[in-house]
Amino acid sequence: MVRALFTILLLSVTAVLTVSSPASAIGGEGEAWPSFVESSSCGAQRVLTPQADKTGPLSREALLRGDFAALFGRSVSEARSSLVAWRFPGSQKQILVHPLVVPSLDRAAVSIRTSIADGRRYQIDWETTFASSFRTIGGSLRTSRHTYGTAFDVNSYRNPFRRDNVLETDIPDWWVNAFIDAGFCWGGMWIGSKDSMHFAWAGPAFGDMTVLPKPYVPLTDPIPFEAAATTIRVEPPEEDNLLITALVDINGNGALDVTRVYVDGQDLLIDASLASRRHSPCSVRRSIVPGMANLAERSLAMGFGDLDGRGGQDLWVATDEDGLLRITVRRAYGGFTAETSAVTSIPTPGVDAWMSTADFNADGAIDLFVVENSLLAIWSLDPDSGESDRLFLSPLPFESADDFFLGDFDLDNRPDMWAVNDGIVSVALASQGYKTVTEEYSPIGLPKRMLDIRAADYDGDGRVDLITFDGNFKRVWLGNTRLADGLPLEVWFEAEKPECSDYERVSLRDEYRFVSSTWIAEGSYVWRTRNDLAVGCDPTEDGCTPELVTRLMFVEFLAWIDNRDGIGVIPGLTAARALAQAGFEIPCDLVYDECWDEAMPTAEGAAAFGRFLSARQGNVPPPHRWIYAKPSAGANQAWPQ
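The structure assignment produced for this chain is given below.
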């Protein structure tokens, strides 16, 4: 199982200060304990299920792809045959689920039995309660979590799905909390709609596992990385003040996005050209990292990784502090505003060293890899406390190397060491203590200049592929035969219509404003309708002309998500007053002026939405590795009060 984790390379001081040319970046092995959280309202970043090639029921022969397939079955037939029965406490009703989910279900059952012993009851209807269902999600290409045996619906008639975001449920709090505390995401907590019948397992990161299970055997055979299987032009060009470029899964769909980090005044901008939109001119998703530019410009290294176990790609920055390495983390969940920073006991490497992170011993904790003077040192790493111990030290088996990277070649959930030298790619296995080179390959057409190279699963079959980005093109060399269904390599992650729409083509990229066809405008429209305020056209209708989303529409959208009625008599500020009274940040002062009518930049909105989610997450169970973040200095600079 290979997921984007932490990308980090030492940068020369001159290159960082001038930011006149891009610094190359090296990819990490992957997330140690996977998160499969279904909604960002459940205390972690949303992780998307893989797509099928058509909507509706899935046949037994249908092949499954990506991280979900790795843990739950490579085909519908394999997933079905893996299911086991589990019975609800206090009922004879049984559901079929994947065995990996059972420990978390049993944990919830203990809590429910305690409540039953105290005289509480909740009746389960046999006819309207189920788990396994092999299909896509209503009308979409995304596979349902029911396909993998990781979700169940309870008493669906009494707990209906509501597209209007109204929570309708008869499930008592004690029953819901039993499953939330055991590592499930409840549909009653969803953003934008409510599915109160629905509970979905959040994955190993939220469970009680002590050993991460081995992945299901891929349904392909390994082959050498020879001719490139696909080449994709990345349309959005790089801009000035670029710090690093990395291949990172930014939006949680399992595919690597071309991600660039820029300096913008006191802030950093993260531009991700999404693989799901085929890296087209309108594929860029922009995030802002407020108040981080100064630290980044004096850093030794920086990169991405899921450091808090919440499924997002957090930004890491490594700096020197009196000869020891300080690791500062800005969390992706919460809009890159929450920060942890601690001095480790790791000696600061020299400027020629290479660093990356992965789970060296498969214990669920992230470790730091340092290559310096032909030696590989691996350190345990806790960026919250700074606690670190050296776990491994050994000479490298590579005679020379232009670059290093990490990736699980032999599918044992441990990061193998890869090196590139003069067009030759070599692999040293973690299971053999990185002592010898076990594999060597000569990919045809491997670029001499690479801004990033990764060993990751491009086609979702479970085996690693080589993926490079040279500044213009993303190239892929498969490490496996093609899957038997013959579908396109990108079928499991690429949008049904990845091309730019007419409106996107004419939009100025520098502005990055939301348009009315988005979910934000729809939420604003529904909220204003519910509160008897004047509305324009319904943004879901074809005849509704796109318009820019204002800050006022944005706070109405947040009030819709949080089910808050308007407060006050000034129509333009009723949503803002409701949010402010509930303790949420608002983008302008509580005085109606031009600030509210201005179009909202996407970067500002993304950061604000992240902070909103972080503030409303409530009492959620911690994942396997949890970092309690402290507010960062300058975190509110991008959000005027």
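Interim note for the steering committee: The first helix runs from residue 13 to 18. The two ends are 44 Å apart (CA to CA).
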